[in-house]
Amino acid sequence: MKENQAETNVRRSSRLKQNSIQSYFKQEKAIPIVDKKKALKPLKEASITVKNLNTPEKVLIEIKHEKAKQHKTAKPTKPASFRRLRVNKWTKEAMALCPKPIMGTEDGPDDDCEVRKACMVECTDKSCTAGPSCGNRGLQRQEYAKYEIRSAGGKGDGFYAKEDIKAGELIIEYVGEVLTKEAAQDRLKHNTSRHVYGMGIGDGIVIDSAERGNDARFINHSCDPNAETGKWEVRGRPRVAVTARRLILSGEEVTFDYHFETEGEKVKCMCGSKKCRGYL
What we know:
alpha+beta, eight-stranded mixed β-sheet, three-stranded antiparallel β-sheet, 5 helices, 15 strands, S-adenosyl-L-methionine, nucleus, AWS_dom, SET_dom_sf, Post-SET_dom
């Protein structure tokens, strides 16, 4: 009897991994598709429109493929192999896909800090004459808001402000391992974690914080969010900043809208806001 149960668990585990690979990214012709009949409960894919002066892009975010359990303590849950990162860790393959800088430095440094900020490009010593007084280097200096990670009830862990955060201010950067879409898909085949976190930033590049990353991975969804994501260029590389959409009071949970785009079964929303759509 025990042997039969073990065989059943192995088959279920195999089907779950195959299904995770199928729905981790938007279906494209270049990506193999697993037979839908073998799927159990597919992951859903979210998309967030990101401002870009030249061409609009989308930031895609994967959320937990299992319901988060309520934790008795305020300690965040992380995979046993999780390692904290201060900045993104790029692979050589992802670097080869890195887009060209929006604004070059051929003319030398200048004082156009506000112009670069409007273009979502941070200043550097090569592009800016302001030096230490420059106010457009938040991601590089990690000028994050004060926050804490604690239980968010039925949603699992949540990201909470520990101070008032004004509209437009940087809250935190979404940090992780930067992979190609193909590498991230292949990683899912050997995934042993209960959760999957992957953020696509365009050009076939994915920021994966499943095993390495920072606390931005704990930010939950809301249909009436108080924060948003934006794609910035920092020293020629794309990075994702989470900023406040409005005044966020101390003790308030920080959230943003995942804007789920899904085929098949819908995911029930647990945000609890008055504007809740019912489903992600």
